[in-house]
Structures are given as structure tokens and as C-alpha cells.
Amino acid sequence: PDAQHLARALVSLDPIATAPSIVPVLERQGRWARHLVEDLYDAGAAQASLAYAELLITAPEEAVPGLALLLDRIGDPATVPAVRKRLTRSTDHSPETVAALLNTLSEVGGGGERRLVLAFTAHETWFVRMRATQALGRCGNPHDAGVLEMLLCDSNWHTRYHAARAILSLPQLGADHLRAFADRTKDRFAQDMVAHVLAEAQAPAVR
To answer: What pLDDT does residue 192 have?
Structure first.
């Protein structure tokens, strides 16, 4: 808590000049940096979005999930090139780091990350495949139908769910494509997921 309060005070003092001092704090927090990120954002970290993006490129791996979460929270599209650049070094990263970067790319990216995202759809770790699938739903196109159908047969429920949601949302695919796939596949889990997502899409919004 003391480090968190100090980090917030530093950001409040000068968001840009103190950005390098925040990286070690995020590094110690690791994957559990969400509360710290909220504090930093409230203190004005968004003013230093490009500074944090630059730091992301060379930051220690343990700091990357927190920095990615902070950039996600800030939501500045100008930071996407740095996220993309760090993600291309994925052979050096843990699955947790790759997933964090993919999540930020999915939330903040503008759609030009498709080829990079596709490279992670066959990753051995389920939550990396899930994040890649989620991102593909935002930056993909109808040519990705085959990949998404493969992911709809994935062993992981969350990956199947995001694959179905991606097909539903992408132009020229949608509900008709999902139904047609469910009719021709022999994968019972994929069929169940199609039914689940279509029912979810048709359910009235809860107010």
C-alpha cells in the first residue's frame, strides 16, 4: 500500500517525468496490478501515455502485464505501435505476458494487427488462444472464418465462446454462418457453443 500511495503521488506531481519511476512498482505488482493501475489512472497517468508506451518496449518482463493493463485503461490508440513491437518479441515472453499484450491490442488497437494476432491463435496455452481469438473478433475479416471455426472447436470453453462471438460480429459472417457451421460440424461442444451465443445475442438486454 505504501508503494502504491507513493506511486500515485509521483504521478500526480508530474505524470511524464515520473513515469520511469512507476515501472519498478508495476514490476513488483506483476499480474496483480489492477488496483494500482486504477490509482495511477485517477492520478493523471493518461497524460503520460506515450511515455509509458515507450517504456513498455524495453521494460522487464515482470512489469509488462501492469504496463499493458495501464495502457489498456488509458485507451490511447497512439500507444498501439509500442504494444505491437513488444508483442513481436513474444518468444522471450511468458504466456501471461503475451496474453496481457494481446488483451491491450484487442481493446485499444484500431484493426491493423490482424496478421500478428493470427500468429497466436494456435498457441499452446489456452488463455493466449482466448485473447488472440478475442482480438481477432475486432481486427479480423471474413477470410478468417476457417481459423475461427477451428477455434470454435477448441478444448477451452472461453476460446470457443470468443470464436463464436467473433464470427457473429464480423461482416459477411454473422448468425447465418454460425448456424451453417453448427449444421455441418460433428463437434458437439462447438454446436452447444453456437446455440449458447445465438441465444445470448437474442436475449433482451437487462436494464
So the answer is: 96
